[in-house]
Amino acid sequence: DGGITQSPKYLFRKEGQNVTLSCEQNLNHDAMYWYRQDPGQGLRLIYYSQIVNDFQKGDIAEGYSVSREKKESFPLTVTSAQKNPTAFYLCASSRQGMGTEAFFGQGTRLTVV
Amino acid sequence: KNEVEQSPQNLTAQEGEFITINCSYSVGISALHWLQQHPGGGIVSLFMLSSGKKKHGRLIATINIQEKHSSLHITASHPRDSAVYICAVKKDSNYQLIWGAGTKLIIKP
Q: What are phi and psi of B55, to 5 degrees?
């Protein structure tokens, strides 16, 4: 079955460490997205990619980095420069075009201690 | 003003009640999604709509493209329906997803 997989579901890291969140899709989708959610808040766009080897900053890109070396994969690195990394992170993917469905990962809850 | 507005922000109801959650948007869209987020964070996609109405079990989603409005209905609500329900639209200009802030639903037994 096609789908989008985020791992792990829960992640704990020490302050000052970089951490990479995984997002893989086997849907042949061109576009992939990373969002962040803080308690009681809506989801905000961190980075998105519409094609391999290209990505764009979203609204809150500072302290994050991404790569898109393969169509299937869009890993997000939370760097030590991110001041408040503890949050829920959601990956999504979609085809370009009208009326097309987006697919969503289960999310990763990152806690930095 | 946010491009996607949900109402109400919070909703508490008794088991068995008919529930309606609303989503209004101000941009041109190619699709609208309803998602469910349980405590602990996992997100489940409920519906994708580009027109009309969809039904899945006790859940019904409708969209009115002219009025730029969608509703999510839950019939015979149950405590296990307690979750945050989120509306997200896919913009037709750049295909980006714009999210509503979510509606926190609590169903009391």
A: -135, 135
Does pLDDT of B38 surpass 90? no
- Kindly tell me if the per-residue pLDDT of A73 is higher than 90: yes
d(C-alpha A11, C-alpha A19), whole Å: 9
* CB proximity A113 to B under 8 Å: no
CA–CA distance, A36 with A30 (Å, rounded to integer): 21
Judging contacts by C-beta atoms under 8 Å, the chain B residues touching residue A97 are: 30, 95
Q: For position A81, what pLDDT does the model report?
A: 87
CA Rg, chain B, in Å?
13
Taking the CB of residue A72, how many other CB atoms lie within 10 A of it?
A: 18
Q: Burial of B95 by CB count in 10 Å (0-12 exposed, 13-18 middle, 19+ buried)?
A: buried
Which residue among B43, B92, B102 sits closest to A107, beta carbon to beta carbon? B43
Maximum pairwise Cα distance, chain B: 44
* Sign of the CA dihedral running A98, A75, A23, A53: positive
Residue A95 and residue A29 in contact, taking contact as beta carbons nearer than 8 Å: yes
Q: What is the pLDDT of residue B91?
A: 82
Nearest residue, CB atoms, A98 vs list B45, B92, B100: B92
Judged by a CB distance cut-off of 8 A, whether residue A102 touches chain B is: yes
The answer to whether B77 and B107 have CB atoms below 8 angstroms apart is: yes
Query: By the CB < 8 Å criterion, does A101 face chain B?
Result: yes
